Amino acid sequence: MQHYFLSQTIKVGDQIQLPDDVSHHLSRVLRAEIGDQIEVVSSEQRVFQAEVSQLVGQKVTVTVIKQLPVNVELPIKATIVSGLSKGNKPELIVQKATELGVSQVIFLPMKWSVVKWDQKSAKKIKRLNEVALSAAEQSHRNVVPTVSYLKSLEALVAMDFNTKLVAYEESAKAGEKAELVKQVEATAADHSVVAVFGPEGGVAPEEIQLLNQNGFINVGLGPRIMRTETAPLYFLTAVSVLTELQGS
Amino acid sequence: MQHYFLSQTIKVGDQIQLPDDVSHHLSRVLRAEIGDQIEVVSSEQRVFQAEVSQLVGQKVTVTVIKQLPVNVELPIKATIVSGLSKGNKPELIVQKATELGVSQVIFLPMKWSVVKWDQKSAKKIKRLNEVALSAAEQSHRNVVPTVSYLKSLEALVAMDFNTKLVAYEESAKAGEKAELVKQVEATAADHSVVAVFGPEGGVAPEEIQLLNQNGFINVGLGPRIMRTETAPLYFLTAVSVLTELQGS
Questions:
Q1: Which of A48, A119, A201, B20 is deepest in the core (most CB within 10 A)?
Q2: Is 2.40.10.220 the CATH classification of the domain at A3-68?
Q3: Do A237 and B242 touch (CB under 8 A)?
Q4: Where are the transmembrane segments (chains A, B) (predicted)?
Q5: In CATH, which superfamily holds the domain spanning A77-244?
Q6: Contact residues on chain B for A186, CB-CB shorter than 8 A
């Protein structure tokens, strides 16, 4: 069933004229007909089943049938921070991280980033938020993750999170393999966890130092070297496995 | 350090003239010089440090310095089976699965696959094995995963694995969240686990029936709907978290 985010409150029985972009997608791309069912998510992140009740040109009106008892959000709020990386990697990170339950994705320049965004950042972030919306619709999220740009690691360490981690290849090489599980399991429900991932070149020693001084803990993500776009997906999956699946 | 797979046994002190493709990459792409260090992996999956000792035209000879005590393979052998999917998804699956430690990737047509490979399969599989080799070099694996094509699910169920799983969206929707952890933890070291993933349309009921009749267990991978190329990466990460990281 199609799944759309509406920026309004919703209650059963409401007749809602869908926003133009959603209407267009339903009526023109999917050729919806009267009686077709969709899911709509309210601004309070509640999911409702609705039925197409009126089609006038490209304008689609739905009637809200019932609330669905659906919550697919991770029990802890996960933020990933990614050093600027090349090509379509930021898009891949945002798309896959959204499927894996991320709350927030932050991109920032790091010492060993070979690309700069500078003036391009507003345009890139706009596009990446569209990728997040589309992926959140596809994976039937209750929330659309936010994607943003920070100018520096200094701006990041001023932000507030309950659990703060940095994926550090040198820790993994040195055999560190306990901290990720320990830190995620120690994070209470509804609390936040942030994890920093370097660009292609990795995280520089002075960046590790700044992060450590501000309470970020080095974690290893297993023994293999992962690309810059794969490591955040490993982290988010680990959060899911440790908080959403049941142990034996 | 560059990491290359050689199809021969290696011992410390050996002088090895590298194969043409590796020589070319080192001498022309990376402009290697005498004394540069690389890693070479023997046909027995042992990793050695070697030093460039001779450069004649594009021919590179290395001297093997020492064996490195490196094993980055998953403790259990993981095979993923993927219903044929569109576009560059098979490449993405192979590349990321290799980074995440997969042993074997099998592609096969499934009922709801919208693409067919048929005559193209040999060419596709050749290309995908190149992707696996390149990703195995980048992620410093001890083994290059194999990529192959099977004609049908019937051919798959005739194969032998210790633990057999199928990722089934309907199980996840019904709240199944215990089997993945249980089955992976019950798989002994060096034993094999296989997991089947449907194409974009999912796994058809009659395919689930065939798999279940042949000992495949339905597992949920958390509450969110994942794309066909994301689910195998979730599975492999879960295997890593459950077998390579230490619990608190």
A1: A48
A2: no
A3: no
A4: none
A5: SPOUT methyltransferase, trefoil knot domain (3.40.1280.10)
A6: 248
Which chain A residues touch B219 with a CB distance below 8 Å? none
Tokens coding B213: 């009749």
Considering CB atoms only, which of B223, B225, B245 is closest to A138? B225
Q: In sequence order, which residues have a C-beta less than 8 Å from that of residue A64 and are 6 or more positions away? A: A10, A11, A12, A13, A14, A15, A16, A40, A48, A49, A50
- Roughly what angle, to the nearest 10 degrees, separates helices B89-99 and B231-244? 10
Say yes or no: do domains B3-68 and B77-244 share a fold. no
Which of B179, B239, B241 best probes binding to A when mutated, by most A CB atoms within 10 angstroms? Answer: B241
**Where are the domains positioned within chain B?**
3-68, 77-244
Give me the torsion for CA of A61, A66, A71, A72, rounded to 10°: -50
Q: What is the pLDDT along chain A (248 residues), one digit of tens a residue?
A: 899 999 999 999 999 999 999 999 999 999 999 999 999 999 999 999 999 999 998 899 999 999 999 999 999 999 999 999 999 999 999 999 999 999 999 999 999 999 999 889 999 999 999 999 999 999 999 999 999 999 999 999 999 999 999 999 888 888 899 999 999 999 999 999 999 999 998 999 999 999 999 999 999 999 999 999 999 999 999 999 999 998 74
Q: Which two tokens stand for residue A173?
A: 């090489």
Q: What is the ipTM of this complex?
A: 0.94
Q: Which residue in the block uniquely carries the two structure tokens 């601004």?
A: A43
- Edge-to-edge strand list for the sheet holding A192-197: A146-149, A104-108, A77-83, A192-197, A163-167, A217-219
